[in-house]
Amino acid sequence: MSNKHLFLKCGFLRAPFGIGVGRYVCQLQRVTIKFCKNHGGSLGVRHFLEHDLINYAKENPGVVVYVKPRRHRNPVIKAEYLNGETHWACVRNYSREDIIQWMELVKTQYHEGSAYRLLKLWYTEFPSIQGPWTPFTFKEPFANHTKFPNKMPSKTGQPTATEELIRLFKEQQEAEKLNGEDRVENSVS
């Protein structure tokens, strides 16, 4: 079993302050695309640079795009965010469409959620002073000290399940008696 999760950053997933309040602020600050001019693994990156880079830069004026050619290395997309985090992805042998999807992903994500070791499954900035909700939150207090089965009538006014079964059983017995009497009368006459 691996212990690599012990070396992950721990914390809580949080949205950056003010994102979507007032106006949207793209958290991506800069993208560096590193590629080789001759290597076959960089073909998709080169097609992206030739056909789609200008449109990407026009659509995202707040993002600085650096293009860095380097020899005999795998292509890499490196993203830097406003909170100081840096993420990179090796895009060797990716197609042009895959590069477009990666560029959209680094633009829309705020941090890499899979790189966090969560301290709790849920977290809130403003915890309730009343405590978390439980199924017993709005129950009557007398039910906490009641021994079951309880001889006291229920406070809801509805019969209990046991009382309902007893009533159905008695109705069934009465119906059988009436059917038996009808059969006896039919056979006598």
Q: How would you describe the shape?
A: elongated
Instruction: For the record, give the distance between the C-alpha atoms at the N and C termini, rounded to a whole number.
Output: 85 Å
% residues in beta strands: 15-25%
E-strand count: 6
Helices and strands, in N-to-C order? EEHHEEEHEH
Task: Detail the poorly predicted runs.
Answer: none
Radius of gyration: 35 Å
Mean pLDDT: 83
Largest sheet: 4 strands, mixed
Percent helix: 25-40%
Q: Briefly note the structural class of the backbone.
A: alpha/beta
Total count of helical runs of at least 4 residues: 4
Strand order of the largest sheet: 3-2-4-5
Keywords, separated by commas or semicolons:
single chain; 30% helix; alpha/beta; 4-stranded mixed β-sheet; two-stranded parallel ribbon; 189 residues
